[in-house]
Amino acid sequence: MKVNVKPKNVAQLLGLCGLIGCVGALADAYPLRPIRMLTPTAAGSGSDVVARIISGRLSELLGRQVVVDNRAGVSGMLAAEIITKAAPDGYTIGMMTLTQLMASVLYKRFDMEHDFSAVSRVGSTPFVIVGSPVLPVKNISELIAYAKARPGQVLYASGGQGSTPHLCMEMFKSMTGLNLVHVPYKSSVLATTEIASGQVHILCSAIPTLHATIQLGKVRPLGVTSPEPSPLAPGVAPIALTVPGYQMDGWYGIVAPAKTPKAIIGKLNASIGAVLKIPEVAERLFDVGAEGKASTPEAFARFLRDEVERWDKVIREAKLRVQAP
Questions:
Q1: Short-list 88, 95, 81, CA closest to 40
Q2: Omega before 31 cis (within 30°)?
Q3: In the CATH scheme, what is the homologous superfamily, with its name and number, of domain 10-124+251-318?
Q4: Which of 48, 133, 254, 276 is the most buried (most CB within 10 A)?
Q5: CB 39 within 8 A of CB 71
Q6: How far apart, in whole angstroms, are the C-alpha atoms of residue 144 and residue 173?
Q7: For 179-196, how does the pLDDT look when each residue is reduced to its tens digit (9 = 90+)?
Q8: Largest CA-CA distance found in the chain, in angstroms, rounded
Q9: CA geometry: angle at 12 spanning 6 and 15, to 5°?
C-alpha cells in the first residue's frame, strides 16, 4: 500500500524514509525548493537561449521554479566544476554542451563519465561559419581563396581558448592549411558583437547564438558544419561540400552531480521529455536554430562516452594545440 504523504521539509522527508523507503519518498517529494540550472555561457548564447525556453515549462511541471544561472568562462569549465562540487540532491543541474565535453578532453580537469549523472539530451544544432560585413566573401570557397591570398591577415573570433568556436576554426585551419589569426573573447556573445561591428572577420558558433544577428543581416552565413544541408540554416551550404570530411555537430543536454539518486534523475528525465513534447517548446527551439531531442539517462550517458572518444581522436589526429586557460 502506498502512503500518500507530501512532506513540507527535509526533516519530514527523512522521517518518511524510515516508513516507506528513501527512494520512494525522494521521488514523490522532489522538488521541495527551487532548482538551479547552470549554463556554461553568457546570457544570449546558444545554451542560455535553450535553457530559458525549457526552464519555464519545466518549472510548471515540477511545481518549483527552475532558475537559470549563467556561469560563463574558462571554456565552460567554470559551470561544469560547480556542478561536480554541488550536493547530489537534484537541486543543482546544468546544461552540458560540446564546448564542455571538449574541455574535458583537452584539459582533463573533470571526467564526463564519472563526475556527472546524465539526465537527458535536450537538443541539437549545427554550427555555422559567418563573415563580418567588411569581409567581401559569400561562401566557404571564396573565404578560402581570400584567406590564402592574405596569410595571417584574416582574424577569427571565439568565445575563449579551447571553446567550441575556437576548435571549430582550428579544425577548419588544419583541414584547409589556412593561416588565420585567433582573437579570443570572454564569451561567444561578445565575439558575435565584435564580428557584427567588423572588428574581426569570421566566427564559427552555434546557430542559436547567431540566430538574431543573422536575421538582422549583421553577419553573412558562409557554411554550415553539418554534413548535409540543415533546415535550421536554410540556404546555407555544408562546409563539407568544399572541405570534404569537415563536420561538427552541436548538442545540448542536462546533467546533475555524480551519485544523484536515480529516482530524482528519473523524475527530471520524465519532466524534460514532457516539456520537449510541447508543440510550443519545439517551435520556439526550432525558431532559434535548435531541434528538441530527448533521451533516456542511459542513452545520454552512452552518447557522452562516444563523443569523448570521437573528439579525443579528432583532436589528436588534427594535432590541435591550445593553451590551458
A1: 95
A2: yes
A3: Bordetella uptake gene, domain 1 (3.40.190.150)
A4: 254
A5: yes
A6: 10
A7: 999 999 988 888 999 999
A8: 77
A9: 110
